[in-house]
Prior knowledge:
heterotrimer, B: alpha/beta, four-stranded parallel beta sheet, 4 strands, globular, C: Rossmann fold, two-stranded antiparallel ribbon
Amino acid sequence: MTEKIGVYVCHCGSNIAGIVDVEGVAKWAAERLAHRGVVIARDYKFMCSSLGQELIEKDIKELGLTRVVVAACSPHLHEQTFRTACARAGLNPYLCELVSIREQVSWVHTDKSAATAKAKAVLSGGVERVIRHAPLEPLRVPIHPATLVVGGGIAGIQAALEIADSGTPVYLVEREPSIGGHMAQFDKTFPTLDCSACILTPKMVSVGTHPNITLMTYAEVTNVDGFVGNFEVTIRQKPRYVKVDLCTGCGVCEEKCPKKVIDDVFEAGMGQRKIIYRPFAQAVPKYPVLDRENCTYFLKGTCKACEKFCPTEAIDFEQKAEDITIQVGNIILATGFDLFNVRRIPQYGFGRLPNVFSSLEFERLCNAAGPTNGTIVLRDGKTTPKTVGIIHCVGSRDDNFNAYCSSICCMQSLKFAHLVRERTGAEVYNFYIDMRAPGKGYEEFYHRLLEEGVHFVRGKVAEVSDFARLPGEEGHLIVQVEDTLIGKQRRIPLDMVILSAGLEPRHDAKQVAKVFGISCSADGWYIEKHPKLDPVATMTEGIYIAGVVQGPKDIPASVAQGAAAAARVMGRIQQKEIALEPVRASIDETRCSGCRICNALCPFNAILYHADKAVSEVNPALCQGCGTCVAACPAGAISGTVFSDEQVLSQLDGLLLRNLQPVEA
Amino acid sequence: MTEPFEPVIIGFTCNWCSYRAADLAGTARVKYPPNVRLIRLMCSGRLDPTFVLKALASGADGVMITGCHPGECHYLEQNYKAMRRYQLLKRMLSQMGVEPGRVKLVWASAAEGVRLASEITKMVEEIRALGPLGWATAGAAAALPHKSAALEVPA
Amino acid sequence: MTTNGKPKFAMDWAAGCGGCEIAVLNIHEKILDVDANFEVVFWPVAMDAKYKDVEAMPDQSITLCLLNGAIRNSENQQIAELLRRKSKILVAFGSCACEGGFPALSNLTTTAETLDTAFSTVSTDNPQKIRPQPSYAVPEGVLEIPHMYSVVRSLDQVVPVDYYMPGCPPESEQIAAVVELVIKALKGEATLPAAGSVIGAGHSTVCDECTRTRNEKKITGFTRIQDFRQDPILCLLEQGILCNGPATRNGCSARCPIAGVPCVGCYGPTDSARDFGARLMSAVASVIDSTDPQEIERILDGIPDPVGSFYHTNLGGSLLQASKPTWEEDQHAAHHD
């Protein structure tokens, strides 16, 4: 039985009609594809307009069309539009195909006759394909109201609070002992010079006390099964060696602990901490963590001072790691960033020259609760620097390391410049390539620095050394730089150099992405669904990203993304169910031989093997419709909807115009 | 008087990266020769070698397979399967005398519209230089065997 | 010519080895059913008859004809066309007729190279490089031998075929079952499947009948059965042995892989496969356990002859056949050689 196919060729104003003879293509379809079932072929100025859509709807009703092909723009723009139009007219939306003759033809080719010929071929491919389409229904799945937020930095905190405030439960999982993220390490924030902890800690406290938030710190997600609306997540709660239901957070254990080690996480190696410790004073939750690797008891079997002095007997050396499984409907990943390791640029001398500091080290130096109580001093702990250099773009905008701009380092460098001027009165030099100050109040902040007498040298620093060559350089760090605005090489002697390190994805970002089934770009930042129009969703339904994990950005942008992700999740929860595209694979049990080639091919673990029947089966809710198993099955027992073999091969025939003569009977 | 040879190349793109790259080339109005006709798949992992052979057996002079860069597949790792199949397919095609440049694998992310356009331009010229594939039975052998009408069997 | 009222049966070979004939004879006492229910009018291996006898028969007078062997030379072609004309039901019998069989591997090379291998090898004493001549004059007249085409073809690439019965050879139990079905159908007690079907075989693959244990597949290298001591219970493919079983239609009881010999695909592709080798190659390549292009190349070096290893008996029916000259071109060359 031949289908009744309606063909619609769009002019798109002159976007298509300017290069492709759209009337000619429609006429051609009506003549040369009539034997394939084309009963009507129209051309129209704007098919996506309501009038254009009405043309289709009218034809479906009056001519009894069973298939529709629209030749217009990209399916990524209007596939949904035309599918919905067909549905309105009573035709199953999946019996409609949109082929691109704009992005793929009229916008990229200049030869009109060649473009018209190609448009005909593309349309012919679409017609052949649509004949093999089958009516499909979307898959509906319920949405569990709980949400998982991974990462307790400012983006994660914002997301968790917004969702929790809307009335549904949130699990916030953070792998450090406390939430707060990098923002807790900063002293002041640009451009307002708000104290970072002062604006952050109220939110942290809200999280800690919120009735709808289950806070799990010192914990990591180890496994995610399931699909949007129905995730089953396994979380490994690492042992704190402290019973949290007994601990009052009094801090006596930390006080009495006799051992100290360098704190290279929170203090960036600038300070020390005890073995049983809270990372910082305002830590949320207030329960300390015992560092097993350095604990005298675990190493030698002695001490136990914390246990002796704990007034509530909350210390538990026998505590074990615990695996907890939770059910959630949506997941927000806000796992943040790591700093570029400035050691990788040996010519800047970090680690070799004592008074070269990384940006995070300098933040700790400035912080009133930091290792020097906020006094800016050299590594010797007492000398105030008289000259300070701040190098921008360390590890960013650099083909040798990261090509991208880390977005915040210019503002951070200006902030450092201001703090140094304010607290020490030292001469400050900022070595920059460009000054990036796009945010609200940012440019004004830069001007303030200009007025404060900070020296700005436009040039990429070649090296930082302590090798004195000229008078006045002895005992100083020398920055060698080309001052491009005056076109001269300069050697500038300084007491202290701060390297504004770029932002990088977490060292284990790729592994973590795999656990959640999302992808990273080549840089390692998590990939958003659309870089312009959908920055917080990912390609995996139900998994959202927020904050720097998606790419370098400042605190306001991270907060905005946390809130945006929260809004998306709340929308889903409110709808209670979600419709999934019915692009799925399925296995014909009678043809399947149980060879098990397919089982290992699915990264979503959607293909199960039934040993009793010796056949495999695809779980349609887990299947994401990639079609890899369809292509791999040696028996040809797996078929895929929407991209079946018949559909692809017939499109191929149509593209090569092999369908123009009637098929031999 | 012979018409100059215009190669016909079938391109397989993946919905998430390379098809979007092709769209981006369009939006950016990057120009490339009209010799490539694209088929959209959800993923390069859907690329069945049968499609490549059928394309060549149906009159195409070349096939371009495109997908997300390794490590960036929307479905996590399915482009690796495409890569493995392609590597084996290349060996088989060369045994049958098909020049290596006729079937190409190109990775392109959604942001690489310009690059994809230049890869297409390059391939069109390479195939133009190689000439028509010359699979003489372009079509005949690729069609499914002729099936005769229903039989009568005498009782 | 006498007739005895029974439906007529014929069997002949083209470019084959005789194994199909033996397989038919191997149906043991069921051969008596054949004799009881059919009049065997042409079966060179079993009785004496000449081509002119067949030419003299009325068209469509042979009820069932099993033709095995691929079509390689003009004699094969002529007998295929002749038997097609004279038969009601023409069955492409055996791998060679169905998919080209092993002879189709000759399509990887040229006729000239094939003749060189046959007539001028190291062990052949042929210093003047004499080759077979299509025609040769002797005092008694002109002797002609069939012309060798440049392409090995399956039967249906030459004449329309009613049924396909794959196997190298088809298993005797399957032959017996088909014989019984045809006899019943002739009596009106059963119906034959739709024309164009594959008979005497199943709808799944050899793995369905293979008793070896199978796990998730991760191949790190390819090897051959003579190179190591194989595990008698584990799937051959998982041990790196390139078994064609996963892509091969079942019906043969998986005798070969169970015995430790990798399947060569003689039961041909499944219903939904358009190209046997492409299906198998897609499956095997997909489960190579590496994401590094260079390591994948190294692993693939373990298959020195990919077309041979993935097509074995199925090259004639594959899409790669499109790379060979057309029938018209071949015939034209035949008459102008």
